[in-house]
Amino acid sequence: MKVCIAEKPSVAREIASVLGATTKRDGYFEGNGYAVTYTFGHLCTLFEPADYKPYWKSWDLNNLPMLPEKFQVKVANNDGIKKQFKIVKSLFDRADIVINCGDAGQEGELIQRWVINEAQYKGKVQRLWISSLTTEAIKEGFKNLKPSENYDNLYYAGFSRSIGDWLLGINATRLYTVKHGGYKQVLSVGRVQTPTLAMLVNRFKEIENFVPQPYWELQTLYRDTLFSYEEGRFLKMEDGEILANKVKEDEFEIVSITKKKGTEYAPKLFDLTGLQVYCNTKFGFSADETLKIAQKLYEKKAVTYPRVDTTFLPNDVYPKVKGILSKLTDYASLTAPVLSKKIKKSARVFNDKKVTDHHAIIPTGMQTHLQYNEQQVYDIIVKRFIAVFYDDCKVSNTTVIGKAADVNFKTTGKEILSKGWRVVFEKQDTSSTTNTSKDKLLPTFVKGEKGPHEPSFLEKQTKPPNQFTEASLLRAMETAGKQVDDDELRDLMKENGIGRPSTRANIIETLFRRKYVKRNKKQLIPTITGIQLIDTIQNELLKSAELTGTWEKQLKDIEKGEFSAAAFIKGMKRMVDALVYEVRSEKVQTRISAVNNKPAGKQKSKTKAKAKTESLVGSACPKCNSGSLLKGKSAYGCGLYGKSCDFTLPFNFGDKKISDKQYIRLLTKGSTVNLKGFKIEGQTSEGLLRFDDNFKLKFEPKQTAKKESIKAGDSCPKCKTGQILKGKTAYGCSNYKSGCDFRVGFL
Predict the structure, then answer these.
(1) Which residues carry out catalysis?
(2) Which residue of 298, 372, 498, 595 shows the fewest CB atoms closer than 10 Å?
(3) Kind plus residue range of the DSSP H or E element containing 401
(4) Cα 607 to Cα 81: distance, rounded to the nearest angstrom
(5) What gap in Å lies between CA 559 and CA 105, rounded to an integer?
(6) pLDDT tens digit string along 236-286?
(7) What is the DSSP secondary-structure string of 425-478?
(8) How far apart are CA 106 and CA 560, in angstroms?
(9) With helix as H, strand as E and coil as C, how does 474-523 read?
(10) How far apart are alpha carbons 121 and 719 in whole angstroms?
């Protein structure tokens, strides 16, 4: 029997349908000699600290750094996951061959390899590598299965990334929380999230500390066209005033007109970051929302694999282009001009050297019913794809020089000689074939003409840089914080960007969840806690986007087989060891608490403040922070529900009605109190509600403290050298004077 393992039940269903495995079993599909099973994302995870050494469970500076000799993997501690893993293992035990059908990327490879390894499967493994979920793509993929060994380096890179994040994330988070955290305040520090936060904080401070500098501009208006002094702005008012007074006396004369024909190329195809930037700028979607929509479009077979970092297509896609365009019947008016002649093949689109695991995001040709926001994203992906096969846009760039009293002024403009690809992005009600139309943005000037003009001499001030938006932050992460506007240069810098395209959205969402960053319309503003954390971290390497970019380059080199995973892990361990030593030695004791995130200003009276928080309706949605909560028939929901947010709070959970007061506590403090009367899996339970990472309600059973069984004279389980003494109210260690704080209260 051939056993296929996919990353999601929905993907397994698609693959099973193509393979003829149509019989539904518990946890898999079966038929035609195949069993198609699945994971739910990460069935397996790295060991927790306490799995290596029990005393590592304690958040104690004396336990740091935690540097396991060998990193190990386990099945996640969840009943549903354990059940599915058991099903998968039983299928592997009967398999003649296993086919890894995980997402065709680094994370997909890692997820499935961990499962295969933990199931102790020793037989032959093949890899399905596809870029879309269409029937044609799946069939072609199964005809061209690859040996699993071809993707070993991809797995090593993924494993190294996880270990690097574990080493730095767990050690640094505990280090800064114990050293600098306030009451119940966890200070989350991460390999990618901390330099990203540092970029936001540095930009915020740059703006806050910005001192405007005055400058002066000399301009003149001639024939309703604004001309500017050719040599630029003046930093001294008196220098400009002399010329301003001089030009008032003379007429304005056109000295030269220069026209230079140029070419404007169609926008590049989308990689994930480009798509997220576009959708944030044009539609206001967060990076996470765009990724989720793109993933849905992929699973609906409408577009190719979205978690990509290239804007190019391989040459072997070119023969398929005509077929894809022909199937896009909803865009027939735009595809007709392309299909009527030989389809253009440009090196700006097709380049095997710029494509690694996957190509740019393009439509598959499959058209299906989509929700409004899905349609918006799909529409721009399709139009970008169509546009690259149109002719280039031909323009004429015009520079006009004029003078008054021998003082030169300049203006520039553009004529569109042939629209080319621009037609694709015009509204449907305008002409789509006016390639010979001219859009003159300047009047027709004649050399030597003269006339009256209106000079102006204005004082202006320099402006600070803009606060980051998600769009500009994604671009900054892509280039490790360097300001790069040129597409070609940005492509060269991608290998040193921080984070991967598929994880950047989650990094930004993590900063929101940690309350390090908040939204102000489209702007991303660091909170006081976020600013304090970056100020407290003295180690510049931990905040360095450049260093994190170097790590990303090393991970990519591991993937290519050009760098050793062992060397990467050794380097991370060395840095963590040095970091712990440095921070433990710090004399300054800063205490950071999220309570500081409350905006400064006059405090309202307690009665007014209380009255305001008593109502859920009108409260800010905790998930998107953009919409306000509304009351429906069976739940509260975000006012943007069905548009850009899916947040709801049901009136009942686990057969229990949840009061508004408890939901208000959940929104403000992160959880309800422990409540009785829930019915969970048929059992009456007591516990509390809180949000999971996707802002869905989750139930946590009431925790009952377990006292350790201990008696006087035992060896101290913490320091291993002292003995247990019995005090008046608790047992303690005989080494308490020399620093061991082990203590257990009497039962």
Answers:
(1) 305
(2) 372
(3) strand 393-404
(4) 48
(5) 11
(6) 898 888 999 999 889 999 999 999 999 999 999 999 999 999 999 999 999
(7) GS-TTS-S--TT-----S----TT-EE--EEEEEEEE--PPPPPBHHHHHHHHH
(8) 12
(9) HHHHHCCCCCCCCHHHHHHHHHHCCCCHHHHHHHHHHHHHCCCEEEECCE
(10) 41
